[in-house]
Amino acid sequence: MQLTEPYPHEGSRDYALRMLTQNIISLALVPGSRVSEAELAEQMGLSRTPVREALHELDKSGMVKVSPQRSTLVSYIDYTVLDDMMFLRSSLEYSVLRVLCALPAPLRLEALEDNLLLERRAAARGDRAALMQLDNEFHRLLFALAGKNRVYELMAGSMALLDRERTLSLSLMQRYDFIEDHAGLIDALRAGDTGKALGVMELHLSRYQKDKPMLISACPQYFSPADTAR
Question: What's the pLDDT tens digit per position in 58-112?
Fold first, then answer.
């Protein structure tokens, strides 16, 4: 596992949950692999209780499968689950764009434009970790601009399962089409063009499906048996 120091005043359970989540999203904890509560606790320098609590929290979100008296399994990437998550995300993102396009012009788009510039720089140096963070930040800024910060936080809490697919896609494909999607969204918002904004977002959020065949072909061991059998 890849570990960082705890935040100031961060409890043991929260630290364990953060480290496990980050390592699952980054694929350092491989989909389908078994993990030991005792070994995880030793690696993080914690007792088993906060690790057990973190694993049960991840079990609720579908990121691991805890079997009593047996090893815990890191969940496979499952496109049935991803489709459900994307259904939720697209519904909220489309609603936010409609809110933004209905606001009086001109919108304050400077933060989005600054983010886009940072994305282009990160792409130029191949910094995939920064690109993941900046992509998330771009969407957070959209919700913030619409005054829907709490909605974004609710959505973000359920999106970690999608992030593993994004990690794999960025790693294998090294294609950053989403940056131009973001540029198109800024243009549409500047023009107050709801139709264009929704069209760009639809393309943006559907890219994971276009990547699906290549990702499963390259790393079938990461995916649910139902996906690899199709």
Answer: 999 999 999 877 789 999 999 999 999 999 999 999 999 999 999 998 999 999 9
Give the tens place of pLDDT for each residue, 119-130.
999 999 999 999
Secondary structure of the chain in the HEC alphabet? CCCCCCCCCCCHHHHHHHHHHHHHHCCCCCCCCEECHHHHHHHHCCCHHHHHHHHHHHHHHCCEECCCCCCEEECCECHHHHHHHHHHHHHHHHHHHHHHHHCCCCCCCHHHHHHHHHHHHHHHCCCHHHHHHHHHHHHHHHHHHCCCHHHHHHHHCCCHHHHHHHHHHHHHHCCCHHHHHHHHHHHHHHHCCHHHHHHHHHHHHHHHHHHHHHHHHHCHHHECHHHHCC
Does the pLDDT value for residue 161 go beyond 90?
Answer: no
